[in-house]
Amino acid sequence: MHNIEHIYIDGTFVTPQGQDVADLFAPSTGEKIGQVRLGNVADTHAAIAAAKRAFPAMSRTSKEERIAMLLSLRDAVSARTEDMAAAMTEEYGAPHYFTTFSVARTATAFEEMAKTVDTYPFRRTMGRAEVSMEPLGVVAAITPWNSNFGFICSKLATAIAAGSTIVIKPSEMSAIQTQVLTEALHSAGLPSGVFNIVNGYGHVVGAELSRHPDIAKISFTGSTATGRAILTAAADTFKRVTLELGGKGPQLLLDDVDLDQAIPKIAMAGFNNSGQACVAGTRILAPESRYDEVASRLKAFVDTLKVGDSRAEEVQIGPMVSEKQWERVQSYIRLGIQEGASLLVGGEGRPEGLERGWFVQPTIFTGVSNDMRIAREEIFGPVLCLLSYRDEEEAVAIANDTDYGLQSYVYATDQERAKRVAGQLETGRVVINGAPHEPLAPFGGFKHSGIGREFGTFGLDAFMEPRAVLS
Ligand code: NAD
Question: Which end of the chain is more exposed for a tag (fewer CB within 10 A), N or C?
């Protein structure tokens, strides 16, 4: 059993003043594997006060000092790779391929930000003005369970690069992963108070961070509903916000698509991280002329997918993170049937042979129209919609007919045509033919998928305030 008894404030592991305790579960078995003692409002205040005390010195650090801190954080997390992967597999149940990517990104987040700082123009001349980019003050990061290491580290890296201090509130469902990561970050030996990590409920610790006058900025990743609550709470004190929210990504298959190459990419972009990914491509748009072919090839591919306990490396789809999430996904499968869509593959209930754990059958609906709720709402599980379109213009219109705008996908043999279509899509990122992640490019959403961008210089800009001096 894991008993997580401490939070991290002012460079020290401390027992929270909060008395609430939350249970922790292994999604692959549904069994309880531990408990976490949660911080409360008083703990939040202590963390904010520590970050505030550390801010003046941190804000005066040189570029070289910040780069040195970032590289020591990189080395510190690299030394705990195996423990981090083990915690992520046990507590989250993410498939091996995603755990490997996520743990590696934990270290590279610091390295990429060190490169960004190195060339970042903190001082610029604009006309007659001397412009300096100033750190905002104490930043709060609020992160979700679906990529605990990655989001904590990318936000922490950006705060350090900017010369800010930070209070981090991870998901209360990721406490075992957070414990391993905090130990690693602590071993980097940064000055006390530069980063503080408080486990706690969103409506307690997260809400207090969102309204506290000493927090200058919130960097949030999570659901659109919570993002809206944070934006409202932050308004009183005019906090700067970066909101990375949900998605309902379209995958556009143009009529010259090479399905031999594309089908595995399309399916896995939809079922990315067992469907628990904000960037999942959950609406597959096929040309009418090739709809049946796409459907039968997708079905054949999904029939080969290995669903199960993610300790087995060959597993491609792991469990949902919690019973609540499992119930939610089941309710959307029922809803799809009620709305009149047809099951191409999958359906309600657990996959055959998996009697325990929060496993879902990878499911694809055909006969879906874009006004059905299964095509409009983020399900956050391995449930995809296959829609048809008549021509390119209609494909783009369906792709853009959504409140979300995080990441879309285009598949075509003609690369120039794919780029022309990409240029019409209202999403923060467009991935052509399964191109790999680019950590230096901005990441974030149009419309209800968020406000602002993370990563690279766009991410760093969002942690800074320009001051123009005219003489
Ligand atoms: P969530 O919104 O329920 O929780 C995210 C975080 O916010 C948690 O730490 C939670 O405790 C906290 N929180 C909850 N209520 C709060 C409140 N009132 N005030 C302040 N904080 C509060 O999201 P989740 O279920 O943990 O994560 C899944 C969601 O995150 C999905 O919608 C997914 O699309 C989104 N997501 C977005 C991105 C992105 O980069 N755009 C990446 C990953 C996940």
Answer: C
* Residue 34, domain member (yes or no): yes
User: Same domain for 316 and 197?
Assistant: no
Tell me which residue range forms the domain holding 170: 2-245+447-470
Instruction: Answer yes or no: do 48 and 171 share one domain.
Output: yes
pLDDT for residue 132:
98
The candidate with the shortest Cα–Cα distance to 276, out of 429, 385, 430, 381, is 381
pLDDT of residue 18: 98
Active site residue 426: no
Do 267 and 218 share a structural domain?
Answer: no
Report the domain count for the chain.
2
Domain presence at residue 132: yes
Residues 29-73 have pLDDT tens digits of 999 999 999 999 999 999 999 999 999 999 999 999 999 999 999
- Report the candidate in 35, 29, 4, 146 with the shortest Cα–Cα distance to residue 90: 29
Average per-residue pLDDT for the chain: 97
Query: Is the same domain home to 239 and 259?
Result: no
Index of the ligand 1 atom closest to the CA of residue 171: 9
Q: Do 202 and 299 have their domain in common?
A: no
Residue 175 lies in a domain: yes
Confidence band for 4, pLDDT divided at 50, 70 and 90: very high
pLDDT digits (tens, 9 = 90+) for 103-130: 999 999 999 999 999 999 999 999 999 9
> How far is CA 136 from each of CA 62, 115, 214, rounded to the nearest angstrom?
16, 21, 11
Pocket test for ligand 1, best of 142, 152, 455 (most atoms within 8 A of CB): 142
Pick the catalytic residue from 91, 112, 172, 244.
244
CA of 319 to the centre of ligand 1 (A): 19
Same domain, residue pair 457 and 423: no
Say what the pLDDT of residue 47 is: 99
CB atoms within 10 A of CB 241: 19
* Mean local confidence (pLDDT), 190-194: 98
CATH number of residue 26's parent domain: 3.40.605.10
State whether residue 116 is helix, strand or coil: helix
Q: What residue ranges line ligand 1, CB within 6 angstroms?
A: 142-147, 169, 171-172, 202-203, 206-207, 210, 221-223, 226, 229-230, 244-247, 278, 378, 380, 406, 445, 450
From CA 352, how far away is CA 315, in angstroms rounded?
15
pTM over 0.90: yes
**Percent share of the chain, pLDDT over 70:** 100
C-alpha triplet 184, 277, 136: angle, nearest 5°: 55
Model confidence at 76, pLDDT cuts 50, 70, 90, reads: very high
* Cα 437 to averaged position of ligand 1 atoms, centre (Å): 22
Residue 95 neighbours by CB under 8 Å, 6+ apart: 273, 274, 310, 315, 316, 317, 318
The whole-number pLDDT of residue 133 equals 98
Is 385 noted as a catalytic residue in this protein? no
Residue 20 counted as domain residue: yes
The structure tokens 């990122």 sit at 429
